[in-house]
Amino acid sequence: MDLISHQPNKNPNSSTQLTPPSSSRYENQKRRDWNTFCQYLRNHRPPLSLPSCSGAHVLEFLRYLDQFGKTKVHHQNCAFFGLPNPPAPCPCPLRQAWGSLDALIGRLRAAYEENGGPPEANPFGSRAVRLFLREVRDFQAKARGVSYEKKRKRVNRQKPQTQPPLQLQQQQQQPQQGQSMMANYSGATV
After folding, report:
1. What is the CA 53 to chain-centroid distance, rounded?
2. What are 153-183's pLDDT values in tens digits?
3. What Å distances lie between residue 37 and 58, 120, 136, 179, CA to CA?
4. Which of 86, 93, 128, 143 makes an SS bond possible with 74, Cβ 3.0 to 4.6 Å?
C-alpha cells in the first residue's frame, strides 16, 4: 500500500501552496480609499489626471464625501449648537467627522507616495488641506461643545532645594585663612 500520494496536495493549510501575504486592515483601507479617490478623479468633469491634482481638488473630494457622513454637526443658529448631547432631533446636516477626515488624508497621503507621486508635490499634504482640516476640527468642536486643545506635557516638578544666597555660596567656596582648597572637599577642618 502506497502511503505517499503522488497527486497534488489540495490541503489549503499546506506549506506547498503559495498564498499572498495577508494585508493589514490599515493597508486594505488605504487601498480602498486610494481607489475611491482615483475613481473620483476619473468621474470629475473634466476628468483629472493624478499629476494635475492639487490641494483644491482634494478639498472638493472631501466636500463630496460630506454627503455620506454620519456625524450631526449643528449650524450656528441651531438651538442645540454647542451642546454635546442635544435633547431632541434637529434638521442640521450629517457630515464626515473630523477624525475620519484626518485619518483618510493620512492614508491618502501615504498611498500617493506609494503609487509614485513625489512627496514634495503631494496634494494631500498641501497647506490648504491642513487649514481645512483645522477649520473642520474647530467648528465641529464648537458645534458639539467639545474642545480639541492639545494636551500639554506635564513637567516633572521636583521641589527645588533651597539654595543659600549667592554671596554666602561665594564665601563658602573661598578657602578660609590657613585652609587648603582640599579641606572643603574632604570635609576636614583645620
Report:
1. 23
2. 676 666 555 555 544 444 444 444 444 333 3
3. 9, 19, 20, 82
4. 143
